[in-house]
Design a protein that fits this description.
binds zinc ion; 29% helix
């Protein structure tokens, strides 16, 4: 599965009926709001992006071009 932001493999194992690491990570709610509608609930944001968003929200939005939305 690919991260909806950086499009890198996020290592999500939801597909395999396992507990994915993403269940134990707290993803900021406002970050979830930026996931494209069609992908909400079915994709995981990768750890890198979560960390990026947490430490530098404005930088994150700039890099992924969400500034104007
Ligand atoms: Zn990512
Ligand atoms: Zn996952």
């Amino acid at each position: 599965m690919k991260c909806p932001f950086c499009l890198k493999n996020n290592g999500c194992v939801l597909d395999e009926n396992q507990n994915c690491w993403c269940f134990s990570v707290r993803v900021p709610k406002d970050l979830l709001a930026y996931i494209p509608l069609g992908q909400k609930g079915s994709v995981c944001v990768c750890q890198e992006c979560i960390e990026f968003y947490r430490t530098d929200k404005l930088g994150f939005l700039k890099v992924f071009d969400f500034e104007s939305r």
